[in-house]
Every structure is written in C-alpha cells, then in structure tokens.
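MOLECULE: protein
FOLLOWS: sequence and fold
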Amino acid sequence: MVGRMGMSEASGPLAGMLAQGPIEVRKVIIEVTESAPLTSLQRTVHQLQRFRDLGARVAIDDFGAGMSSLSYLAQLPFDIIKLDGELVQAATRDRRQASIVRAVCEVAHAFDAEVVAEFVETESMAERMTELGVHYLQGYLFGRPEAWQ
C-alpha cells in the first residue's frame, strides 16, 4: 500500500518492477489511502498516472474515513474507490450515511470507476451495499484474511 511508504519512496522501484517484471501488470492495484498526506498533489497525480500508463490500476483506499475531500476525486487518477469499513457499517443503519455511499457510487460511475465496500460482514450488509450501487464487496462474510504463501 503506497500510503504507508510514501508516494515518492515507492514510485521508482515499483514502476521499475511493473515495467520489467514477470508480474501481470493488469492484475496490480496500487492502493493510496485517502488519508495519506500528499506533500505535492501535482507530483502524486504524475506518479499515479505513471502507474496507470504501465497498466496498473489505482485505488483510493479508506475513502470516507475522517473528512474526505471530493476534490481529490476530481484531481487524482483512479480506477477504484474503496469505501472505509466504518462508513459501510454506518450506511446500513443510517439513512444519511447511506446517501453518502450512494453519492460516492454515482461519482465513481461518472468517472468510469468501480466502488468496493470494505468490512462487509453480513448478508444484509451485502444486500444494502448492492442496493446503493457498490460494485464489489470485501469482508468476513466472504472469508478471513490469510497469510500469503
């Protein structure tokens, strides 16, 4: 996840691996946390577009955590919005939160992007997220995290 390393630290080595490696680039998704500090928006946009030009996809992770800025969506090149688990859970109980999820899904659709709901734990949560326009679901309902081998 790029947000943990810092965009400038990750971009050089990662771009090199994508360009040369045995990795199927179309299967690579670069996740940038929505709350990650962006020291230079222009540099971040350039680096994310570089990954996309190499064939990787870009996801904005934890969207809806804290004070999200819709202006980032207008400026950052992205393919996927991953909704923060707290927002997902709140949207199953609260009409206003559900309206936010629906609006984010509509914005994503306008940008030809997909939406993933994190922390989906029950069938009712899955049904609600689908009703609101979420494309993909992720969480304990589908399986627990496993160590990579």
Summary: The longest strand covers residues 57-63. The chain has one domain: 2-21+29-137.
